[in-house]
């Protein structure tokens, strides 16, 4: 009996990771009961993200400016470049404030299962950044998953011809662990103990 | 390092039931990666709900029209009135297509803990609907929680002076169970075995 508008909103919410059809319905009810205090702010926040945010053409971060705040911050050490799978990984590492350099977001990981090939990721752009010079170290901060490590291995081969130190996060990461879900202590340890790629 | 826009969206999503800060961050990333296929539809759905939906002044349902589709459906039996706590409960009962009558949404339940008193719920409106006549049976379909049953008890006392049969859902409902989370079989059984309030 819910209206088509409510069905559409329920379905749109149910497709978010972490929400299913039932919790989406609960969320819709929550929003309908709190139109001024919950629905309006969510609508405004979503609209602002949609209107104002752009993808940084240098690093793949999402921000209001292009280049993004990280890329244009003069206090950051441009000689160190940390390569991550997703924007969320960039945020996770940046929250920890342990890495003083810049970032490069691949936009995913190589996956035979999902048919994701090198040309589907921002790998050519990474190679061009390194080729342009000024970078001493590339940290491959992939997730400690099979696909993440396959991606790191592939990247190491692609950039080994450049005069840069290639490192990866220490395997203090739990097997199967994803960066965005780790506590800062684990992240800090893994980053401190990063080691050259063989 | 996430922008204020992303922080605002993350916080608005994190306040939804079923999502916490971490899953909200995941959801935001999901939306940012799928601006056309996920963010735009969610924004449009939320905007449509915000723009088009109104609360039915008769029953408290949420719909594009006032009176709502349930109240204006001539095939429904206006002599039977089912009183529920929330709009989601109306939807849950309506999905099961087992109740041929109309509904009345209280907008909550009595709660000493949360300070919710009779005047905070649509109880006077319920009394006026019954007083206006034409209703033979009032089904008190509160949740099988302490507060739901307290509310049902209070309602039964408020309307016992009218010439209507007052029934409530059979206690096939699991203790502590909430209507919106039950399968249709349980709902059907509870509705079939509804009994007069003592
Ligand atoms: Zn950038
Ligand atoms: Zn109605």
Automatic annotation (TrEMBL), chains A, B:
Gene3D superfamilies: 3.40.1360.10, 6.10.250.240, RecR Domain 1. The keyword DNA repair applies. Residues 79-174 form the Toprim domain. CDD domains: TOPRIM_recR (cd01025). SMART domains: TOPRIM. Keywords: DNA damage, DNA recombination, DNA repair, Metal-binding, Zinc, Zinc-finger. A zinc finger (C4-type) spans 56-71. It comes from the Bacteria. PANTHER family: RECOMBINATION PROTEIN RECR. May play a role in DNA repair. It seems to be involved in an RecBC-independent recombinational process of DNA repair. It may act with RecF and RecO. Belongs to the RecR family. HAMAP family: RecR. This is Recombination protein RecR. The gene is recR.
